[in-house]
Write a structure and sequence with these properties.
The protein is an alpha+beta fold and 292 residues long. The chain has two domains: 123 residues, no CATH class; 94 residues, no CATH class. It is built from ten helices and six strands; from the N terminus they run ααααααααββββββαα. A six-stranded mixed β-sheet has the order 3-2-1-6-5-4, with helices on one face. Helix 2 packs across helix 8 and helix 6 crosses helix 8. The protein is globular.
Length: 292
Amino acid sequence: MTSPQRPTPAELRRIARKLVARNPAYEAVLGFYSEVFAAQEHSRPNLHLAPKPIPREQLAAKRRGQLPLVVLGDFVLDEVESRALLDTLVRLAQDMGVDLGRPLSRLVRALADDAGLAPRLFGTVVQEDDPALRQIAAAVEVPVETLALLAYHSIYPSLSSGAEQLAAHLDPVQPWELGYCPVCGSPPLLGLLDGDGRRSLACRFCGFHWAAPRRQCPFCATREPRSQRYFSGEDAPEWRIDLCDACRGYLKTVDTRLADRLCYPPLEQVASLHLDLRARELGFAGGWPHPS
Protein backbone atom coordinates (compact mmCIF):
# COMPACT_ATOMS: atom_id res chain seq x y z
CA MET A 1 0.00 0.00 0.00
CA THR A 2 1.16 3.52 -0.66
CA SER A 3 1.29 6.69 1.44
CA PRO A 4 1.41 9.74 -0.82
CA GLN A 5 3.13 12.96 0.10
CA ARG A 6 0.67 15.35 1.71
CA PRO A 7 0.96 18.92 0.38
CA THR A 8 1.04 21.96 2.62
CA PRO A 9 -1.56 24.72 2.13
CA ALA A 10 1.10 26.86 0.41
CA GLU A 11 1.95 24.00 -1.95
CA LEU A 12 -1.72 23.50 -2.81
CA ARG A 13 -2.00 27.14 -3.82
CA ARG A 14 1.17 26.88 -5.95
CA ILE A 15 -0.16 23.78 -7.68
CA ALA A 16 -3.44 25.56 -8.40
CA ARG A 17 -1.62 28.56 -9.91
CA LYS A 18 0.33 26.25 -12.23
CA LEU A 19 -2.86 24.56 -13.34
CA VAL A 20 -4.61 27.89 -13.91
CA ALA A 21 -1.68 29.16 -15.98
CA ARG A 22 -2.23 26.19 -18.28
CA ASN A 23 -6.00 26.63 -18.51
CA PRO A 24 -7.25 30.07 -17.34
CA ALA A 25 -10.88 28.93 -17.68
CA TYR A 26 -10.39 27.06 -14.40
CA GLU A 27 -9.26 30.12 -12.43
CA ALA A 28 -12.42 30.54 -10.35
CA VAL A 29 -13.06 26.88 -9.59
CA LEU A 30 -9.41 26.09 -8.81
CA GLY A 31 -9.14 29.23 -6.71
CA PHE A 32 -12.05 28.04 -4.58
CA TYR A 33 -11.07 24.39 -4.30
CA SER A 34 -7.42 25.14 -3.54
CA GLU A 35 -8.64 27.17 -0.55
CA VAL A 36 -10.98 24.33 0.46
CA PHE A 37 -8.13 21.82 0.37
CA ALA A 38 -5.81 24.27 2.18
CA ALA A 39 -8.43 24.68 4.92
CA GLN A 40 -8.61 20.89 5.25
CA GLU A 41 -4.86 20.70 5.75
CA HIS A 42 -5.01 23.47 8.37
CA SER A 43 -7.72 21.45 10.14
CA ARG A 44 -5.96 18.10 10.11
CA PRO A 45 -3.52 18.67 13.02
CA ASN A 46 -6.45 19.56 15.30
CA LEU A 47 -8.22 16.22 14.86
CA HIS A 48 -8.88 13.85 17.74
CA LEU A 49 -9.81 10.44 16.36
CA ALA A 50 -10.06 6.97 17.88
CA PRO A 51 -11.22 4.61 15.09
CA LYS A 52 -13.30 1.60 16.01
CA PRO A 53 -11.11 -1.47 16.61
CA ILE A 54 -11.50 -4.39 14.25
CA PRO A 55 -11.73 -7.73 16.11
CA ARG A 56 -9.10 -10.25 15.05
CA GLU A 57 -11.65 -12.79 13.84
CA GLN A 58 -13.47 -10.18 11.78
CA LEU A 59 -10.20 -8.95 10.30
CA ALA A 60 -9.22 -12.48 9.31
CA ALA A 61 -12.61 -13.02 7.64
CA LYS A 62 -12.30 -9.76 5.72
CA ARG A 63 -8.86 -10.75 4.47
CA ARG A 64 -10.09 -14.18 3.36
CA GLY A 65 -13.05 -12.66 1.55
CA GLN A 66 -11.08 -9.73 0.12
CA LEU A 67 -13.49 -7.33 1.77
CA PRO A 68 -12.74 -3.72 2.71
CA LEU A 69 -11.86 -3.05 6.33
CA VAL A 70 -14.93 -0.94 7.08
CA VAL A 71 -18.20 0.27 5.64
CA LEU A 72 -18.62 4.01 5.30
CA GLY A 73 -20.73 4.30 8.44
CA ASP A 74 -17.86 2.90 10.53
CA PHE A 75 -15.75 6.03 10.05
CA VAL A 76 -15.29 8.01 13.26
CA LEU A 77 -15.63 11.78 12.86
CA ASP A 78 -14.25 14.60 14.93
CA GLU A 79 -17.54 16.48 14.94
CA VAL A 80 -16.12 19.55 16.71
CA GLU A 81 -13.35 20.06 14.16
CA SER A 82 -15.66 19.14 11.27
CA ARG A 83 -18.14 21.80 12.41
CA ALA A 84 -15.35 24.38 12.62
CA LEU A 85 -14.25 23.47 9.12
CA LEU A 86 -17.84 23.69 7.86
CA ASP A 87 -18.03 27.27 9.15
CA THR A 88 -14.74 28.03 7.40
CA LEU A 89 -15.91 26.58 4.08
CA VAL A 90 -19.19 28.49 4.19
CA ARG A 91 -17.28 31.73 4.79
CA LEU A 92 -14.91 30.89 1.95
CA ALA A 93 -17.78 30.38 -0.46
CA GLN A 94 -19.41 33.62 0.64
CA ASP A 95 -16.20 35.67 0.55
CA MET A 96 -15.15 34.33 -2.86
CA GLY A 97 -18.60 34.80 -4.35
CA VAL A 98 -18.83 31.14 -5.33
CA ASP A 99 -22.23 30.26 -6.78
CA LEU A 100 -23.44 27.35 -4.67
CA GLY A 101 -27.09 27.89 -5.34
CA ARG A 102 -29.26 29.92 -3.01
CA PRO A 103 -27.68 32.24 -0.40
CA LEU A 104 -25.73 30.37 2.24
CA SER A 105 -26.92 32.83 4.88
CA ARG A 106 -29.87 30.45 5.37
CA LEU A 107 -27.52 27.64 6.28
CA VAL A 108 -25.56 29.91 8.63
CA ARG A 109 -28.75 30.82 10.49
CA ALA A 110 -29.91 27.20 10.65
CA LEU A 111 -26.57 26.04 12.07
CA ALA A 112 -26.70 28.78 14.71
CA ASP A 113 -30.28 27.91 15.70
CA ASP A 114 -29.85 24.12 15.83
CA ALA A 115 -26.72 22.70 17.47
CA GLY A 116 -27.58 19.21 16.26
CA LEU A 117 -27.86 20.14 12.59
CA ALA A 118 -24.18 19.77 11.69
CA PRO A 119 -23.81 16.26 13.21
CA ARG A 120 -26.99 15.14 11.44
CA LEU A 121 -25.69 16.58 8.19
CA PHE A 122 -22.34 14.81 8.56
CA GLY A 123 -24.15 11.58 9.40
CA THR A 124 -26.12 11.65 6.16
CA VAL A 125 -22.83 11.63 4.23
CA VAL A 126 -21.13 8.74 6.01
CA GLN A 127 -24.35 6.75 6.12
CA GLU A 128 -25.16 7.55 2.47
CA ASP A 129 -28.63 8.54 3.66
CA ASP A 130 -29.88 10.55 0.69
CA PRO A 131 -33.49 10.86 1.92
CA ALA A 132 -32.32 12.39 5.21
CA LEU A 133 -30.01 14.75 3.36
CA ARG A 134 -32.86 15.87 1.15
CA GLN A 135 -35.04 16.48 4.20
CA ILE A 136 -32.36 18.72 5.71
CA ALA A 137 -31.92 20.55 2.41
CA ALA A 138 -35.65 21.24 2.20
CA ALA A 139 -35.79 22.42 5.80
CA VAL A 140 -32.92 24.92 5.48
CA GLU A 141 -33.81 25.84 1.88
CA VAL A 142 -30.35 25.16 0.51
CA PRO A 143 -29.78 22.91 -2.55
CA VAL A 144 -29.00 19.34 -1.62
CA GLU A 145 -25.89 19.36 -3.86
CA THR A 146 -24.53 22.34 -1.92
CA LEU A 147 -25.10 20.66 1.43
CA ALA A 148 -23.49 17.42 0.26
CA LEU A 149 -20.43 19.26 -1.04
CA LEU A 150 -19.93 21.31 2.12
CA ALA A 151 -20.59 18.39 4.47
CA TYR A 152 -18.27 16.01 2.66
CA HIS A 153 -15.37 18.46 2.52
CA SER A 154 -15.91 19.31 6.20
CA ILE A 155 -15.50 15.68 7.29
CA TYR A 156 -12.81 14.76 4.74
CA PRO A 157 -9.89 15.34 7.15
CA SER A 158 -11.51 12.86 9.56
CA LEU A 159 -12.10 10.38 6.75
CA SER A 160 -8.61 10.52 5.28
CA SER A 161 -6.86 10.53 8.66
CA GLY A 162 -9.04 7.65 9.80
CA ALA A 163 -8.19 5.74 6.63
CA GLU A 164 -4.49 6.17 7.31
CA GLN A 165 -4.96 4.74 10.80
CA LEU A 166 -7.10 1.85 9.58
CA ALA A 167 -4.56 0.98 6.88
CA ALA A 168 -2.36 -0.50 9.61
CA HIS A 169 -4.78 -3.47 9.54
CA LEU A 170 -4.19 -4.24 5.86
CA ASP A 171 -2.34 -7.41 4.99
CA PRO A 172 1.28 -6.35 4.35
CA VAL A 173 2.01 -9.52 2.36
CA GLN A 174 -1.03 -10.12 0.18
CA PRO A 175 -1.35 -7.50 -2.58
CA TRP A 176 -4.75 -5.87 -3.09
CA GLU A 177 -5.56 -6.21 -6.79
CA LEU A 178 -9.21 -5.19 -6.65
CA GLY A 179 -10.60 -1.98 -8.09
CA TYR A 180 -12.25 -0.73 -4.92
CA CYS A 181 -10.62 0.79 -1.86
CA PRO A 182 -9.25 -1.81 0.58
CA VAL A 183 -10.17 0.48 3.48
CA CYS A 184 -13.75 1.55 2.72
CA GLY A 185 -14.78 -0.21 -0.50
CA SER A 186 -15.36 2.97 -2.54
CA PRO A 187 -14.35 3.26 -6.21
CA PRO A 188 -11.24 5.17 -7.29
CA LEU A 189 -11.28 8.88 -7.95
CA LEU A 190 -8.10 8.89 -10.00
CA GLY A 191 -5.17 6.74 -11.05
CA LEU A 192 -1.52 7.74 -10.74
CA LEU A 193 1.66 6.43 -12.33
CA ASP A 194 4.76 6.96 -10.21
CA GLY A 195 8.36 7.52 -11.25
CA ASP A 196 8.84 3.82 -11.98
CA GLY A 197 5.60 3.55 -13.93
CA ARG A 198 3.81 1.72 -11.12
CA ARG A 199 0.12 2.37 -10.77
CA SER A 200 -1.83 3.40 -7.70
CA LEU A 201 -5.47 4.34 -7.25
CA ALA A 202 -6.82 7.11 -5.02
CA CYS A 203 -10.10 6.43 -3.22
CA ARG A 204 -13.04 8.64 -4.14
CA PHE A 205 -14.36 8.74 -0.55
CA CYS A 206 -11.58 8.43 2.04
CA GLY A 207 -8.61 9.41 -0.14
CA PHE A 208 -6.55 6.28 0.60
CA HIS A 209 -4.05 5.20 -2.09
CA TRP A 210 -3.42 1.60 -2.94
CA ALA A 211 -1.14 -0.14 -5.42
CA ALA A 212 -2.97 -1.61 -8.41
CA PRO A 213 -2.08 -3.73 -11.44
CA ARG A 214 -1.02 -1.53 -14.34
CA ARG A 215 -2.99 -3.37 -17.04
CA GLN A 216 -6.26 -4.18 -15.35
CA CYS A 217 -9.58 -2.37 -15.48
CA PRO A 218 -10.40 -1.34 -11.89
CA PHE A 219 -14.12 -1.70 -12.57
CA CYS A 220 -14.57 -5.07 -14.27
CA ALA A 221 -11.06 -6.50 -13.56
CA THR A 222 -10.45 -7.54 -17.16
CA ARG A 223 -6.82 -7.79 -18.24
CA GLU A 224 -7.68 -8.38 -21.88
CA PRO A 225 -5.37 -6.01 -23.81
CA ARG A 226 -7.81 -5.58 -26.69
CA SER A 227 -10.44 -4.23 -24.28
CA GLN A 228 -8.21 -1.50 -22.87
CA ARG A 229 -6.97 1.70 -24.43
CA TYR A 230 -6.31 5.29 -23.48
CA PHE A 231 -5.95 8.75 -24.89
CA SER A 232 -4.00 11.69 -23.52
CA GLY A 233 -5.24 15.18 -22.85
CA GLU A 234 -4.28 17.62 -25.59
CA ASP A 235 -3.53 20.42 -23.13
CA ALA A 236 -1.62 18.28 -20.60
CA PRO A 237 0.40 15.22 -21.66
CA GLU A 238 0.51 13.94 -18.07
CA TRP A 239 -3.28 13.50 -18.04
CA ARG A 240 -4.80 10.50 -19.74
CA ILE A 241 -8.09 8.67 -19.75
CA ASP A 242 -7.98 4.89 -19.42
CA LEU A 243 -10.91 3.34 -21.27
CA CYS A 244 -12.32 -0.17 -20.96
CA ASP A 245 -14.38 -1.42 -23.90
CA ALA A 246 -15.49 -4.46 -21.88
CA CYS A 247 -17.49 -2.50 -19.28
CA ARG A 248 -17.48 0.95 -20.91
CA GLY A 249 -15.86 2.43 -17.82
CA TYR A 250 -13.15 5.07 -17.70
CA LEU A 251 -10.65 6.36 -15.18
CA LYS A 252 -8.55 9.49 -15.41
CA THR A 253 -4.89 8.89 -14.70
CA VAL A 254 -1.99 11.24 -13.99
CA ASP A 255 1.47 10.18 -15.16
CA THR A 256 3.52 11.94 -12.52
CA ARG A 257 6.68 11.42 -14.58
CA LEU A 258 5.40 14.04 -17.02
CA ALA A 259 4.10 16.51 -14.45
CA ASP A 260 5.88 19.69 -13.39
CA ARG A 261 4.23 19.68 -9.94
CA LEU A 262 3.28 17.59 -6.97
CA CYS A 263 0.08 15.79 -7.99
CA TYR A 264 -2.68 16.05 -5.39
CA PRO A 265 -5.56 13.86 -6.66
CA PRO A 266 -8.53 16.01 -5.55
CA LEU A 267 -7.01 19.07 -7.23
CA GLU A 268 -6.08 17.11 -10.36
CA GLN A 269 -9.67 15.85 -10.52
CA VAL A 270 -11.08 19.39 -10.44
CA ALA A 271 -8.59 20.69 -13.00
CA SER A 272 -9.43 17.99 -15.54
CA LEU A 273 -13.22 18.02 -15.55
CA HIS A 274 -13.18 18.63 -19.30
CA LEU A 275 -11.72 15.13 -19.73
CA ASP A 276 -14.72 13.66 -17.95
CA LEU A 277 -16.96 15.42 -20.46
CA ARG A 278 -14.90 14.02 -23.32
CA ALA A 279 -15.05 10.45 -21.97
CA ARG A 280 -18.81 10.67 -21.52
CA GLU A 281 -19.23 12.05 -25.02
CA LEU A 282 -17.53 8.86 -26.20
CA GLY A 283 -20.06 6.76 -24.30
CA PHE A 284 -18.00 5.81 -21.25
CA ALA A 285 -19.10 6.10 -17.60
CA GLY A 286 -17.10 7.19 -14.59
CA GLY A 287 -17.44 5.61 -11.18
CA TRP A 288 -18.41 2.11 -10.15
CA PRO A 289 -20.31 -0.01 -10.86
CA HIS A 290 -20.94 0.80 -14.49
CA PRO A 291 -24.21 0.28 -16.30
CA SER A 292 -24.15 -2.79 -18.53
